[in-house]
Write a structure and sequence with these properties.
Helices cover about 45% and strands about 15% of the residues. With about 200 residues, it is of the alpha+beta class. Strands 1, 2, 3, 4 and 5 form a five-stranded antiparallel beta sheet that branches. The radius of gyration is 18 Å and the shape is globular. It binds flavin mononucleotide (FMN).
Length: about 200
């Protein structure tokens, strides 16, 4: 890793213009995802996260499915814009990571620890968010650009069928990534003193 942890966090952005190139071999992308899934924390060490890495034709297929599904719900006169966004910002990239949470694992925890029953679904989502952030930042360190998308639950059924995803895996987010074609714009920040209070 060439940048330190905080610089990596600072440099992570959403990239919406991607090309279909990779700065690293596919097995390195696989290693990032496997390590992130293995070491990102989860409530009660439940390890409820599940991930699909879609590359090549599989990646293309996901965004074709998304366009198909959206065509049925987006008004005809605005579908052109939707299609263009999907083609240029997501499908044009190198791959997509699908984040799921295993509802069976969450239910088991709810049964085992009744006191926290209502918290487990929330903690499961929080843990998924941590994993998404780890992978997002790690990909950026390798020279990729990525963004975070939520076409679930619209695409859930088609995704499950296409990749034989177990029924209990619930789709949480999609992360298209690729070589950045343009840089993100300036980002505005609220004054940090309004958001962090120090008492010492
Ligand atoms: C929980 C969460 C959900 C998000 N959902 C979407 C989304 O559905 N589509 C999208 O384009 N960006 C989404 N984003 C990206 C944010 O809009 C983006 O991170 C934010 O504007 C800050 O910009 P940056 O990522 O360039 O730092 C999401 C981010 C988070 C943390």
């Amino acid at each position: 890793m060439s940048k330190d942890f905080l610089s990596a966090i600072k440099n992570r952005r959403s990239y919406y213009a991607l090309s279909n190139e990779s700065p690293v071999p596919d097995d390195h992308i696989q290693e990032i995802i496997e390590q992130a899934v293995k070491y990102t924390p989860s409530a009660f060490n439940s390890q409820s996260a599940r991930v699909l890495l879609l590359l090549g034709e599989n990646h293309q297929k996901l965004w074709n499915i998304t366009k198909d599904v959206l065509k049925a719900v987006v008004p005809d006169d605005s579908f052109g814009k939707t299609e263009q966004k999907i083609n240029e910002s997501f499908k044009s990239g190198y791959g997509t990571i699908l984040f799921f949470e295993d509802k069976h694992t969450v239910r088991e925890l709810q049964e085992k620890f009744e006191l926290y029953a209502e918290k487990f679904p929330l903690w499961s989502e929080q843990s998924s968010g941590m994993l998404q952030f780890v992978i997002w930042t790690a990909l950026e360190l390798e020279g990729f650009g990525a963004s975070l998308q939520h076409y679930n639950p619209l695409i859930d059924e088609r995704v499950k069928k296409e990749w034989a995803v177990p029924e209990e895996w619930e789709l949480v987010a999609q992360m298209p990534f690729g070589k950045p074609v343009s840089q993100p714009g300036e980002k505005e920040f609220k004054p940090i003193e309004e958001r962090v209070k120090i008492f010492k």
